[in-house]
Design a protein that fits this description.
Chain lengths: 596, 596
């Protein structure tokens, strides 16, 4: 089925929900205005619909292939990547000093949603480059920027993030790859990395590997990790390509989904590398890029959900079965059956919630860098930090659940691979895992983000939601308002409970036992806030006669759907927040009935 | 990883939760006692572990194959089926008059859980035979029983249910297959059927197709459907096999999961068939077997969840990452991280809830047939009817969600096919779809089951839960009790609201809009009841020194895990019950933002 980029929804979410106007108002983006936003989203939609969506299925079927120490991209992907790069899509938010277009991060995130919707396996390639771009912009030397960054921004080369080792996944402090100084300023890099997305391919002449490894004298654990850059092909001082570097893929994984995204096992065998940033601060440097990548993964969750939603909606409008209670029509489209309509409406509501959260995180990231005064920047940095794990985890869980609902709407056809709904269900499943599992995100939220500023960022978002709640009284009466009020109250209770528990290190397990439920609570309620803001903006536009009335009224009703179907979870999440670590500690393997 | 049948948990659930003793007390099962139960479960576990589990992965990889009008089972499956049948597993609950073992349905359901856990694709083959057995026991003539039923009970032949046509899925009334009388009592059957599970294979000499079709003079719609039997190979009057019948598979589907279960497109081209039961009552006859099949599919949901749980638990005990807040140990098993322990504990709690619901449905089915007096039989029939859609839908949704959590516990390894966790996630996804989608189950619950006796069955289950609540005060204090009390209250409110709405045919859409949420509410709360009954029984056994104390204490704690993580959803489900059809009706394609 044909994918159509939801350009109108994306623009609405950026403007009316995430408030991208504030970013424009900083003056830091002279080339950005509303028209540019519209044009960029339109063009991204075009590329997604015409270049990338047609390759999604063949990518799934054929996948990337490995043979003789090299990876070949899935059929059509290498050409498509080069066309994508030539269109300037790899440097949207990069600095013009390095050839980028200097647009807001929030717009880049929005523009990439259709890319991931159209072809999630493809989208990972530029997404990883973006992470490398961020790392080099922040920590690279002038020479590194000149040599590598410009090529990444132009898309001539791609980037790869090389963190995980077999024994070091969520716990990167356990990694053992070594980098030994060669005496000439370069390093000799040795070790094995796994799960390296697009770590090798034939779409570009070179690939820039950003690799975590240890210097010979490094302290053990996370404080002894440094960040290195190792290009697949060495670069001569004049910028021309030289000899092949001493690393290679030794295989690609056979995965549940995203078959066209090669997931490489990489062997570095005395590869020539250079240090990026300061020795032993590699983990911190990598986290600058990982945090950006985390929001991008959140957008992937939204994107795959949107794709699944569109496909399910098209099927529901086409497939006829039974009699509708609304039309009385026998052989009605299944869309006219309330339970099918419910599924589609809840899917759409959750997608808009996730989109709002991710783009709000992008706006916060832009303002954290570019707001006018230091207090403002600190405020927005706090909000970016708080929202990042929520954007990543909530949106990707949502992506899986919505893709599963998409299968369900199709009935038996959903289980047949040719239909395509199953591919979304398979592809979506990676997003809660990579770039830090959603459990890691939850621990990051309760362990660091919540309390790093004494809870100020969390309290600020509660205050902002409460302000929206006051406005909501003008639009709805009764339950839709009460449900948001109760949900905000649950967030407040949970937040205060956690901040209190965090005072006592002996109760660390209570906090960790609460992590998942707290993240889900925050996501559910902040998601509701996003829809509430959208509904209020839609009501204003409707009054002003500005836009398609059916679509705007839909935004108003969609909040109600969300309030009835999702916001009620808040009290249940609150119960789980308070379950306590002691209860879980008692659930030993024996208690769980493990075979003796 | 090695599958171990949870024999101890199954016996506990049958006895302490589902109350299988009542079935024994009817006297209808003279060959059944506690020892027999234990022996049957042990033996089923053995077969599952040693015969079926080893074939699960190759079945996924190679699948059943189609060529030249015939299906070949996946490697090893045909031999395994014949060994399975020789073991007597296809006739556990069938009447001894036809060669069966005359054991309770509830025990058969319990014994089949390990079969489905070990190899869900395999388990479908005998499961479909069981459905055909039920239909022939209820509606077959003596000759049909002699000719076909005995062969199905012995497992010498298998059965297939042939309902769906391309235009007739959830709406079977739309089917068009024709059966024309031949004048000699037989019929000539013509039409195409899709989604025919194990519709063809090479494991047995014959396959008995139970086919819905229309007689030439049949009224249109669901009241013009009759049930026919068509064997793959015609049977001579002496019982020997004759000529090949005029039907054949024309292909098998390429599916997301259960690759070793051939899903056939079948073409009937003037096939010789016989009528089963009365003309034009085929749908009702088929529903006798579909209701039994629905509980069996619920057990599949439990089974795949148990398999995913075991695999995730084994991984979590083995994989080491980071420091545990409980042990302080660096490089601790990830099982010692609270968020991982939470996932596994919630998985286990939900599995036990689903197991309790399914086996209670089985007990109700046994008592509906065999209870001593007519009032009792009516009572238990009402309970069976009420629980059936819940057992099917709640357990299979749970199966998908628990399989997804199983992937998540594995982190990156979960997305790699070789690990096996992904296969469970793929296999599990069919169960909410077939034997009536879960949306159809929800509509059956609110449309028929809830009100067919004026709500008596629902009110009776509320009363029973309230009685357990009273006992719960002796075991827990505070929240675990409050949560169950609130949850029962939500069930009561929702039930009364629905019964009231159902008085007014103009509000049919409100009832349908509530269906999914009501089913989930019932499932969540009845599931909690199951765990509460288990906890009370475990406390008694603990006091009596009867059984492994760690495991029994685990049952008591597991209820608390469920109360904190699942029972809280009740209030949220109640909100969704009341959302109203009008809201959903307003969510038109335009409102949902469909491209113009």
């Amino acid at each position: 089925m044909t994918y159509r980029a939801p350009v109108r929804d994306l623009a609405f979410s950026l403007e009316a929900v995430a408030g991208v106007d504030r970013v424009a108002a900083t003056g830091a983006f002279p080339d950005y205005d509303r028209d540019v936003m519209g044009a960029v989203l339109e063009a991204a939609g075009q590329v997604a619909e015409t270049l990338l969506a047609p390759l999604n299925r063949i990518g799934d079927q054929k996948g990337a292939t490995y043979a003789n120490g090299a990876v070949t991209a899935a059929p059509g992907f290498a050409d498509a990547y080069r066309e994508f790069a030539a269109g300037g899509w790899t440097g949207l938010a990069a600095s013009p000093a390095h050839g980028g277009q200097g647009l807001p991060k929030a717009l880049e995130l929005a523009a990439f949603e259709p890319v991931h919707s159209a072809n999630m396996a493809f989208g990972l390639c530029p997404m990883l480059s973006l992470a490398a771009i961020e790392a080099l912009e922040a920590h690279g030397t002038d020479r590194q920027k000149e040599t590598y960054l410009t090529k990444l921004v132009s898309g001539e080369w791609t980037g790869a993030m090389c963190l995980t080792e077999p024994q070091a996944g969520s716990d990167l402090g356990a990694l053992t790859s070594q980098a030994v100084p060669n005496g000439d300023g370069s390093y000799s890099l040795t070790g094995q990395k796994i799960y390296i997305t697009w770590g090798d391919h034939d779409a570009t002449d070179n690939i820039v590997h950003m690799v975590l490894a240890r210097l010979p004298d490094a302290p053990p654990g996370p404080k002894g990790i440094s960040l290195f850059l190792a290009p697949k092909v060495l670069v001569n001082s004049d910028g021309s390509l030289g000899a092949r570097n001493a690393f290679r893929p030794v295989g690609v994984e056979h995965k549940l989904g995203i078959h066209a995204s090669p997931t490489c096992v990489m062997a570095y065998e005395g590869a020539t590398a250079e240090l990026v940033g300061r020795p032993n601060e590699g983990l911190a440097h990598m986290f600058t890029m990982m945090n950006a990548a985390r929001v991008a993964v959140g957008v992937e969750g939204v994107a795959i959900a949107e794709r699944a939603f569109q496909q399910a909606l098209a099927y529901a409008l086409d497939r006829r079965q039974g009699r509708s209670p609304w039309t009385g029509e026998p052989g009605a489209p299944i869309f006219d059956h309330p339970d099918v309509r419910r599924m589609l409406s809840v899917m759409k509501a959750r997608i808009e919630a996730g989109r709002g959260i991710c783009l709000s995180t992008g706006v916060a990231a832009d303002l954290a860098k570019h707001a006018g005064d230091a207090d403002d920047r600190r405020f927005w940095k706090g909000r970016e930090d708080l929202l990042t794990p929520i954007a990543k985890a909530w949106s990707t869980d949502m992506g899986v659940e919505v893709a599963s609902m998409g299968v369900q709407v199709h009935g038996g056809m959903g289980f047949i691979e040719e239909t395509g709904a199953a591919q979304h269900y398979r592809d979506a499943r990676i997003a809660p895992i990579y770039e830090g599992t959603n459990g890691i995100q939850a621990m990051d939220l309760v362990g660091r983000k919540l309390s790093q500023d004494g809870g100020d960022s969390a309290k600020a978002i509660i205050a902002d939601m409460t302000a929206t709640l006051a406005d909501l009284h003008h639009l709805y009466q009764g339950k839709p308002v009460e449900r948001f009020a109760n949900a905000i109250e649950a967030v407040r209770d949970a937040t205060l409970w956690l901040l209190d528990r965090k005072q006592d290190p002996a109760r660390a397990d209570d906090v960790l036992a609460a992590a998942d439920a707290y993240l889900k609570l925050m996501g559910d309620v902040i998601g509701g806030w996003m829809l509430a803001k959208g509904a209020l903006a839609a009501a204003d536009r409707l009054k002003a006669g500005d836009g398609d009335p059916a679509w705007l009224q839909g935004k108003i009703d969609l909040y109600e759907v969300y309030a009835a179907n999702v916001l009620g979870h808040a009290s249940s999440r609150l119960a789980a927040v308070g379950q306590g670590g002691g209860l879980l500690m008692r659930m030993t393997a024996q208690a769980l009935g493990a075979a003796a």
